[in-house]
Amino acid sequence: NDHNALFYNPAGLKRLKKGEMNFFLKAAADPDIKDLLDDIEKAGDSASESQAYLDLINSKRDKHFALRAPSLGFIWARPDWAVAFIPADVSADISFQSGGPPLVDVRAYVDTTLAYGMAWDITKTSGHLSVGTTAKLINRAFVDKSLSSADLVVDDDILGKDDAKEGLTLDFDVGFLWSWDRPTSGFWKYFEPTAGLVVRNVLDYGYLTNLELVADGDFGDPEDLQRRIDIGGAVKLPDWSIWKTTLTAEVKDILHDNWTFKKGYHIGAEFLWEMNSWWSGGWRVGLNQGHFTAGFTGQLWAFKMDLATYTNEIGTRSHSNESRLYMLTASMDF
């Protein structure tokens, strides 16, 4: 029910009660990544670089580190439509192999996104059904490398432009959102259930061209966006004092190559509070991919801050292994 509907479920744009203009700065990181970067720098300054890098890789066996660099973005949403521009959304994953030769796998993405979404009501009888679509123009640069200690010695720029695959693609999402007509009497008059379905990257046909905005040459296409399906539902509980409570459940990324039910399901609860029109916030708690997740939102006039901790499940089907990140988003919301 806010500007995030553009990327989460565009049908929700029809439910906006007023327009929003949001300028945000967002970043997320594994808390141990700073120590890793310090260790890499120390190994590079060592008299015996190759051995130092080898010792470093062996000491981090089966470890995973993630980083989402600070990214600026803008979303302007009105009831029925929204537009967004995110100049550079940079994320990186660093994994140290648990077996075999001592190697470190590095995967990084740089996405530039321009998006426009619209939504319509299909019916308001026997429930409120809305549909929406978000068209996305995405330029993606992608690096996927496996590095040995010798590679680290000779390659100072492990994420260089000459390693990036880049491509420009155009795709769209389609979303549906349904709300049940709340009865005027009986048990269900106190609740407001909704359900949603989203098909992401409907075309999923690959990339149109390489603009070489990031890559220094044409080294092939990046990893595909992949068509995915998300389904979910929510139940709003009766308001109490300053609190508005919502229970939610969803299964995301169905059809993705690495999808499993454990990696796809999320459940949670949201507790929003509002002291007055200029001071509000909320607390959230739940399970994400089988691991604990939590968040906080606080808004004072136009300034808004979101804090969250969540995980990415990076293990195999038989071995669970979590990568926990902490995210901060600061925004001006008008």
Structure description:
The chain has 334 residues and is mainly β. Strands 1-2-3-4-5-6-7-8-9-10-11-12-13-14 form a 14-stranded antiparallel beta barrel. Helix 2 runs antiparallel to helix 3. The longest helix is centred in the N-terminal third of the chain and has 12 residues. The protein is globular, with a radius of gyration of 22 Å. The mean pLDDT is 90.
- Determine the N-to-C terminus distance: 15 Å
What is the N-to-C succession of helices and strands? HEHHEEEEHEEEEHEEEEE
What general form does the structure show? Answer: globular
Q: Classify the beta-strand content into a percent band.
A: over 45%
Computed structural class: mainly beta
Radius of gyration: 22 Å
Q: What is the number of beta strands?
A: 14
Compute the number of helices.
Answer: 5
Q: Strand order across the biggest sheet? A: 1-2-3-4-5-6-7-8-9-10-11-12-13-14
Instruction: List unreliable stretches of 5+ residues.
Output: none
Tell me about the biggest sheet?
Answer: 14 strands, antiparallel, barrel
What is the average per-residue confidence, as pLDDT, rounded to a whole number? 90
> Helicity level, as a percent range?
10-25%
